[in-house]
Amino acid sequence: MKINMDMTKGLKERYNESIAPALMAELGIENQFAVPQIKKIVINIGIKKSDSSAKDLEVALTELTAIAGQKPSVRNAKKSIAGFKIRAGEPVGIAVTLRGQRMFDFLDKLCRIVLPQVKDFRGVSRSSFDGSGNYTLGLTEQVIFQEIDYSKVDKVRGLEICIVTTTKSNEHSFKLLELIGMPFAKEEKE
Q1: What pTM was estimated for this model as a whole?
Q2: Which of 53, 82, 139, 184 is the most exposed, having the fewest neighbouring CB atoms within 10 Å of its CB?
């Protein structure tokens, strides 16, 4: 279902004016509070253990702050794992949780600017839903974001973006993200 949206407005305004009513009609929802919404977006970067892990951690913190627009928190290992040479309390990653206007701004930027500029981009996977209506997207490099200065990048880092919705249905979550503008890959016909 295509809806007519004014792309000069922010994603939050487009959601309230066009996307939510279209979802209500398409999914047969009568209560406006039952319409699928996005609760939060979690962006996560794993930090590999190395000799320069303190420097890597600082650089990753700076890059994720630039990408998300807010300061991330350091995630430490909860227990020691000898096979991975990780001790309890060591930093293993950084994460930031976006809500409200920052969440809408980031999702709008991701769908309209960042993903379409990826070379040989054919769309994001349709099978990355978790069964509870949440969608996880993995990116192999952080340099696709315009906030990252390519000349200052010392190491390519992947990141994971998890979009948490209010619905428990993958189909409803897919419709929500599709109407928002998530560039899903075309279905392959057999």
Answers
A1: 0.85
A2: 82
